[in-house]
Design a protein that fits this description.
Strand order of the largest sheet: 1-8-11-10-9-12
CATH topology of one domain: Elongation Factor Tu (Ef-tu), domain 3
Radius of gyration: 54 Å
Helix content: 40-55%
CATH superfamily of one domain: Efflux pump adaptor protein, beta barrel domain
CATH class of one domain: Mainly Beta
Number of helices: 8
Largest sheet: 6 strands, antiparallel, barrel
Length: 385
């Protein structure tokens, strides 16, 4: 009996010693150990890719699960109208640039020569009007009047004979009418010749001279303007039209560029979802595809309040997964939440406050793209010195 009691005492003492050793070791591991164990799930960033302009999707060469590289084409809109707009704006720019160059270069020699010829012609017309009719013009008008007089006298005599013959029924009514018409025409031509002779003798009227002076003044002003070349304000206006046309071309080219959607970030991703199909019309900002950054993944985990003071930014973490139990991934603590998350949400007592947890992020190298979103993982944070 005593022997049993002795054995029991020994066992109790050993158990007590073991418990003390366990508590000591636990405390040492908590306060002076080299790891803090955490568990969580793998996460990574999603990027929704969209167009900046509206249009109809012409190409979408990527599909779900496909890897995309930097610069790779993701989607493209129908560019026919956009290309036509670029061509139009480019033609407008070329026209504006040509007009500006012409303004800067001044008037061409043929333009100056033409303006000079117009001025000299106007001067000659005015001089002729101011000098009145020349003797040759008066003589010609006199001769024309004399000829018309002779012709009118002859036809009057012919008409007189025809009138007598008609009364005696020697000629027909038609012949009589013909002689009458010929006489009337000759008389009218004689009147015109007399009027022309009077005008030539009188010379040009004052209003004709004034009109010729105005034409000459206008021709001289036009010649001076052409000779001097365009005014500076006209050059400035042409330059402004060039700038406006260039801005229009830049905008049209930018819209054409916006119709091509490429992967612009410097990392390889995977297509998580496709949100539109070919031939669909999309508005600006409509997600076309969603790309996940599986190169830069992290472990979302939580540490208890007691470990908050031990876990620091930049500490290395060894991460393992159920999918690859024999492989260790290297990670680094990149984020520690500044606020605790309560379990339960309302904390009333000190005992309940021990349930505070802090969210952390552990960035993990994933060169082989093995780690996937939602994958369970465990981490050992190396907190020891």
């Amino acid at each position: 009996m005593n022997a049993r009691r002795g054995i029991l005492v020994v066992l109790v003492l050993l158990a007590a010693a073991g418990a003390v050793a366990y508590q000591f070791d636990r405390a040492r591991s908590r306060n002076h150990g080299d790891v803090v164990k955490v568990s969580g799930n793998i996460e990574f960033v999603d990027v929704e890719v969209s167009f900046k302009i509206p249009g109809r999707v012409e190409e979408r060469p990527v599909d779900e699960g496909q890897m995309v590289q930097p610069g790779q084409l993701l989607a493209k809109l129908d560019t026919r109208d956009l290309q036509a707009e670029v061509d139009l704006r480019r033609a407008e720019l070329h026209g504006a640039e040509a007009a500006l160059a012409e303004r800067k270069n001044g008037s061409r020699p043929e333009e100056i020569a033409g303006a000079l010829a117009a001025k000299e012609k106007a001067r000659a017309v005015l001089a002729e009007l101011e000098h009145g009719s020349r003797p040759q013009e008066i003589a010609a008008a006199q001769a024309a009047m004399t000829s018309a007089q002779v012709e009118a006298d002859r036809l009057k005599r012919d008409f007189a004979r025809a009138e007598g013959l008609y009364q005696t029924r020697t000629i027909s009514r038609e012949e009589y009418d013909r002689q009458t018409a010929a006489r009337d025409v000759a008389v009218a031509r004689l009147a015109e010749a007399n009027e022309r002779l009077a005008l030539v003798k009188e010379g040009p009227r004052r209003e004709q001279i004034d009109a010729a002076k105005a034409v000459l003044a206008q021709a001289e002003a036009q010649y001076d303007l052409v000779k001097r070349g365009p005014r500076q304000e006209l050059i400035d206006q042409a330059a402004a039209r060039v700038a406006q046309a260039k801005a229009g071309l830049d905008l049209a080219e930018a819209r054409l560029d916006y119709a091509t959607l490429s992967w612009h970030l410097p990392w390889t991703g995977v297509v998580m979802s496709k949100n539109v199909e070919k031939k669909e019309y999309v508005s600006p900002g409509t997600p076309i595809i969603t790309v996940g950054d599986i190169t830069h993944v992290w472990l979302r985990a939580y540490i208890i309040a007691e470990d908050h003071g031990r876990v620091k930014y930049g500490q290395k973490v060894h991460v393992t997964t159920d999918a690859y139990p024999d492989k260790v991934y290297e990670g680094v603590v990149s984020f520690i939440a500044p606020e605790a998350e309560f379990t339960p949400k309302s904390v009333q007592t000190s005992k309940e406050r021990t349930k505070l947890v802090y969210r952390i992020k552990v960035n993990i190298d994933n060169p082989d793209k093995e780690l996937k979103r939602g994958m369970p993982a465990d981490g050992e944070i190396l907190v020891g010195g």
